[in-house]
Write a structure and sequence with these properties.
The chain has 160 residues and is of the alpha+beta class. The protein has a 6-stranded mixed β-sheet with strand order 1-6-5-4-2-3.
Length: 160
């Protein structure tokens, strides 16, 4: 037996204003998308904005349903919209932000497991990394160079 340690580096910005202009604009689009989320059950709104290789920005927000499994997270709404409407156009980065209607979310919210897997599939398919920008309602912004950083041993099509 051997032990293997998996680590990664990320950048931590004190707030949105420390980001380079392109990342700041993408996160602002995610914040706008978050405002239109449909979250009457959890009161937890998430917005996502995807920057495509052609410069287009695609947004998504969480869409809940009384039958909980029928809802969809912001990240997958955005990434599936990008795949359906811009097939073959690589994804450069995804900005994700979350806010609660019940309390302040002052720490970055990372994608859930299902969203990580969906993003990982696109990253593997396009054969280059997708940068993640993660933010709560206020406070720090995390920047990861690749989805693979936060899901290092992802399941992919090579297993099928």
């Amino acid at each position: 037996m051997k032990k293997v340690q998996v680590t990664f580096e990320m950048q931590v910005f004190d707030d949105l204003n420390e980001l380079i202009e392109a990342d700041k604009k993408l996160m602002e689009r995610a914040v706008s998308a978050r405002a239109n989320a449909y979250a009457p059950y959890s009161n937890f709104k998430v917005g996502a904005a995807i920057l495509l290789d052609n410069g287009e920005v695609v947004i998504g927000n969480n869409q809940e349903n009384a039958s909980y499994p029928s809802g969809l997270c912001a990240e997958r709404v955005a990434i599936f919209h990008a795949g359906a409407n811009y097939p073959g156009i690589p994804i450069r980065s995804i900005a994700i932000t979350a806010a609660s209607q019940l309390h302040e979310v002052a720490t970055p919210a990372a994608p859930c497991g299902n969203c990580r897997q969906a993003i990982a599939e696109y990253e593997q398919r396009q054969e280059f990394p997708i940068t993640l920008l993660l933010m709560g309602e206020t406070g720090e912004v995390l920047k990861c160079k690749s989805l693979a950083d936060i899901l290092p041993i992802a399941f992919n099509s090579s297993y099928l």
